[in-house]
Amino acid sequence: KNGSPLNIEYKVISAFIVFVICALGIVGNVMVILVVLTTKHMRTPTNCYLVSLAVADLMVLIAAGLPSVADSVYGSWVFGHSGCLCITYFQYLGINASSCSITAFTVERYIAICHPIKAQFLCTYSRAKKIIFGVWLFTSMYCVMWFYLTDIEELMYEDVTIITCAYKVSRKLYLPIYFFDFGVFFVLPLTLATILYGLIGRILFLNPIPKEKVKNGHKDFSTRDSGRKNVTKMLAVVVILFAVLWMPYRTLVVVNSFLQEAYLDAWFLLFCRTCVYLNSAVNPVIYNAMSQKFRAAFRKLCSCGTRAQAKQAAYKEQKRTAGAVLTSS
């Protein structure tokens, strides 16, 4: 059938799309982590949360995206029982940690802009690290339940046995867990973000800080105000894309929860999954497009890599030349 997971057209297209998104996303998120950890001026509380988000997105791409490529190629689960449990655990850990990281930097932005005096001792790099540790500890413990809720299952599809990694419990028993997940890790973060970014927007755009001229080479208020606006816009775009790209999958699961027979068209499922993987891959592109500091740091990281390769090539050529001289002598 057209749209069957066994259809060769579906296999090729799904494997190609997901692999390209995952490959680019993995490279981009690794670069985000590297530029923040290796560049001193990039180690800010906000960027600390962005590193947490990048790690969570990497987890989604590696634990959800890459296994789905294998699923598309083989048409069956190939990672066994242990792989099913561990991969499912890390999928949900990455998804939930990314949601909590987005919530954390939204609250941090709100305090930094709407309560600047409190921000001096609340929005610090050390406190951000403690909050991130708490986020990962909470999500790591919360996601342990997936070790008990998933298992491999054999299904007959067009006279072919397909092994799947699926939920061990019935849909009715799974519903309370899903709706709790849906509320805590999707609806609540977006509701909070909508309220807080509304308050932030009122401060930044309706009541801007008065402009002053640059004196003695120091940054003026208007420059700082512009920088805060740019950072806030960038983070708001991250939140908006999170909402838009997760919406098809979340909507599908909600609708299927009330249907007698779940809607599982392979092409539509591919669209929903692709949106999720795209959400985990697109953030480094946003940082590069909207943040001059990230753009410069990315460029510096790439140029360092190019220089290191050039030095290595020159060293190898020097050794080869030296070896040739010794041989000829």
Order of strands across the biggest sheet? 1-2
Largest sheet geometry: 2 strands, antiparallel
Order of helices and strands: HHHHHHEEHHHH
Which range best describes the helical content: under 10%, 10-25%, 25-40%, 40-55%, 55-70% or over 70%?
A: over 70%
Number of strands: 2
Mean pLDDT: 84
Give the structure's gist in a few sentences.
79% of the residues lie in helices and 5% in strands. The protein has helices at residues 8-38, 45-74, 80-114, 116-122, 125-142, 146-149, 171-206, 221-258, 266-290, 292-328; strands at 150-157, 160-167.
Provide a descriptive summary of the structure in words.
GO terms for molecular function: thyrotropin-releasing hormone receptor activity. This is Thyrotropin-releasing hormone receptor. With 329 residues, the protein is mainly α. It has a single domain (8-318), classed as Rhopdopsin 7-helix transmembrane proteins. Helices cover 79% and strands 5% of the residues. The protein contains ten helices and two strands; from the N terminus they run ααααααββαααα. The protein has helices at residues 8-38, 45-74, 80-114, 116-122, 125-142, 146-149, 171-206, 221-258, 266-290, 292-328, and strands at 150-157, 160-167. A two-stranded antiparallel sheet has the order 1-2. A hairpin with a 2-residue loop joins strand 1 (150-157) and strand 2. The longest helix is centred in the C-terminal third of the chain and has 38 residues, at 221-258.
